[in-house]
Every structure is written in structure tokens, then in C-alpha cells.
Amino acid sequence: MPPSPSTIPADVVRCVVQFLLCRKDLYSCTLVNHIFCDVSIPVLYRTLDIRIPIVKRSESRIQVLHPFDTILQKPSYGKYVRKILQCARHFSTERLEALRLCHNLRSFSWTDNCSLGDTDTVFCVYLDILQDIGINELHVKVSSGISSCMWTRLMRFHGISSLGVTSSQLPASDLDAWSARVGSALTMLDFSISSEAARYPQCKSSTSLFLRHMIHLRSLRLDAPTSSIPDILCYLPHLTTLDVRYRTLGQTTMPLTQPLARLQHLTIHVIQDGGVGLGDWILALAPHHNSLHSLTIHNRAPQGNATVPPNFMQRLAQLHGHSLRQLFLYNLALGSDGVRVLFTAFGRLDALSFIPLVPNLVRRPESCSSRPQADHRTPFIASHIGRRAFRMQPEDAHDPIFPRHPVK
What is the largest distance, in Å, between two alpha-carbon atoms of the chain? Predict the structure, then answer.
């Protein structure tokens, strides 16, 4: 006879509930009994995603549920909140009081998809409350562009270790003075401004000046000129994770000095010209022997699938053959010579994704023989060799087989 839920110890319930990812499952656990409820409530309110409304339908009406409404009714739940993902559309003045009750809040994300840009005052009020709470992570995404009022308030925000700013444009301001004020505390920066990427090539040196004060950065995502990235790494000795875009607008100059950063996780988004000169540029970013653990290249050029240069894989193996564990080449084809290097020179490779130029380069396992093939010339191939798993993409594949970010 199975045990009753009331007889299960709280420690056992806590171990199980920690692995529940679906909020519906967590909510169901709160309805079992008092033990399940006491254990599930802290996990349920640890992360509040308010970007997508929760709709409760009944026979008579449709009710939109908001987590802040529950916190206003039960203020003790506010101490469990650690992360909030807020959308500008689901804002009300009354719910600001619920935000003040989240004393242990550590991360806040603001998303504004409105085209009118009339939420600047609301966002500044949020920042005032968040500054009083003392959060560690702040991420802002504004589709219509960050206004001068919003950016001025953001520049006065201090005490955070992780900052993300994504927008179509940014007001012209003194970024160097701002980075000097907050740079000593930042360890993670996501700075993706579309208009800045177009303006940077005319002021390449400003990109290096903007980041030279952030010497403690460990993770950086930046949309900047291709030629300025190696120079930036000379200012960031502790950087281990880099996510950048590659544009070939001419001859790419290599850095005169070796970058101080010893990159472990490198992600490249190829935007133009299909990656001409990409191999030399990647090796210039990670010149230290056996420092790179994962390399991800997304080919987003309009020309479509490109081919990895044959000598690049050999040079990559000479530099990082004993340390590289994950290699993801999306919309990039690899010839037989490159595949031979993968199977012989990378001894610690655990995960691999690419497009084979030679059909049936690796024989399909018998267990996968019944799976339908999208194209008989380039079938989806999965081969397990020892403890390592390799997967290849069909030529028309767009969605990545593996996660976008490397597994730590």
C-alpha cells in the first residue's frame, strides 16, 4: 500500500519540490496538505514571471491573476521572492506596494514592447524601489528605444553586479563616466544597442574606453565593431565568457598585443559575408593554449550555409584540442578533413553539432533507422562513440539541436 502524503517527511518533500519546474505542478503541491504547502510556497514564489498573465476561466467570467495581488493579501510571501520578470503592460500603481514587500529580491527584469514610449515614468518609479531594496541583477529590454529620462535614471543606479541593456537606440551620453562609476562592481554585462553598432565603426576607440573601467567583468555580451573586440579583451583580464557579433566590412586587423582574457566560453554570431576571415579572428580572441571549453558559431549571414575552412579545425585543435568540450556550428558545413580532425584531435569533446558536407559520413544507428528522413542526401545522423555524443544537422535546419548557452 503506497504511503499517504501526510506521512512523508518535510525534508523528503523539499528535495522533490526543488526539481519541479512547472508552476502548475508547484501550485498543485500547495493543495495536498499543510506540509506540501509550507514546502512548495517558497519555491512557487521564488521567481515571478509577470510578462505572461495568468488567466482563470470560470462559467461566469474570466479573471486575470497577478502574483502581486496575492502578495498584497499575504505579505509574508514577499520574503520568498528572489527574481521578478516584469512587463510594462501589466502595471498598476497599487501593485508597487507588493514590490516593496519583496525585501530579498535579487534580480529584476523589465520588458517594454510598447511603441509609444509612455512608460518611462513608471520604470523610474520601479528603479527607485529597486535601489532601496538593493538588487544584484538588473535587465532592461525596451523595443522603442531608451529615452533620455530613463537612461539618466539608469546611470544613477549603483550596487549591481549584473546589468543587461537591450534596445534599438540609446541617448548620446558620457558612457565612459558611467562605466567609471559602476564598473568596479560589474561582473556581467549585456549591452546590445542596435544604433550603437552602426555608430561604433566611426568611433572604434570609444568602445575600448567604455569598458576599460570594468576590469572585474567575467561575462560580456556586446554588439560592437569586429576590429575592436580583440582590443577590448586587453582591458578585461578576468573575462571568461564572451558573446559577440562578427561583421566583415573590410580587412579585419589583428591585435598587436595578446589579449589578457583567457576565454572559456565563446559565442560568435556571423552577420555578414559568411565568415570571411572568421577563423583567424577567433584564434586571435582565444590565443592561450587549452583555455577554451566551448565554442559556438551561429551563421546568420543572408548567404545561407557556409563552409568551415579546412585548416581552421587543425589550428583550433593545436590550441585547444585538450580543453574544448563543446563545439556547436549552426548553419556551418564541415568537410571530411574537418570531421577527421574532430574525431582524432579533440580528446575531451563531449557535444558537437554541425552540417556534414559528405552524406552518410557517419552511419545511422540501428535504433534510429525507423526515424523519418527529411532529406535522403543529408539525413539527420546521431552517433554515440564511447561516452561522447555527436549530432549533425540537416542542411535546412534552423533551430539549434543543443542549448544556445554552454553548459557550465
Answer: 75
**404 burial class (0-12, 13-18, 19+ CB within 10 angstroms)?**
exposed
Is the pTM for the entire model greater than 0.85? no
67 and 48 Cβ atoms separated by less than 8 Å: yes
Alpha helices of 225-335 — where are they, by DSSP H? Answer: 229-233, 278-285, 310-320
Give the cell for residue 164.
Answer: 543587461
- C-alpha grid cell, residue 167: 534596445
How far apart are the C-alpha atoms of 202 and 373, rounded to whole Å?
Answer: 49
pLDDT tens across 233-283, in order? 888 999 999 999 887 655 455 555 667 889 999 999 988 755 567 888 889
| Phi and psi angles of residue 137, each rounded to the nearest 5 degrees, phi first | -130, 135
Q: Three cell numbers at 260?
A: 589578457
What type of residue is 399?
D
Do the beta carbons of residue 332 and residue 307 sit within 8 Å? yes
Distance (Å, whole) CA 95 – CA 198? 39
Query: In this predicted structure, what is the pLDDT of residue 204?
Result: 47
The pairing of strands 219-222 and 107-112 is unpaired
Q: If pLDDT is split at 50, 70 and 90, which confidence band does 405 have?
A: very low
Which residues are within 8 A (CB) of 377 and not within 5 positions of it... i.e. 6 or more apart?
359
Distances, alpha carbon 121 to alpha carbons 52, 86, 91, 158, 167, in Å:
22, 15, 12, 19, 17
pLDDT digits (tens, 9 = 90+) for 44-58: 999 988 876 555 555
Look at phi and psi of residue 51 and say left if phi exceeds 0, alpha if psi is from -120 to 50, else beta: alpha
DSSP SS3 for 4: coil
Query: What 3-state DSSP class applies to 59?
Result: coil
Q: Rounded to an integer, what distance in angstroms lies between the CA atom of residue 209 and that of residue 232?
A: 9
* Cα distances (Å, whole numbers) of residue 279 to 270, 295, 373, 400: 12, 12, 32, 21
- Note whether 254 and 285 are within 8 A (CB): no
- The closest alpha carbon to 266, from 305, 307, 306, 316, belongs to 316
In the 8-state DSSP scheme, what is residue 95?
G
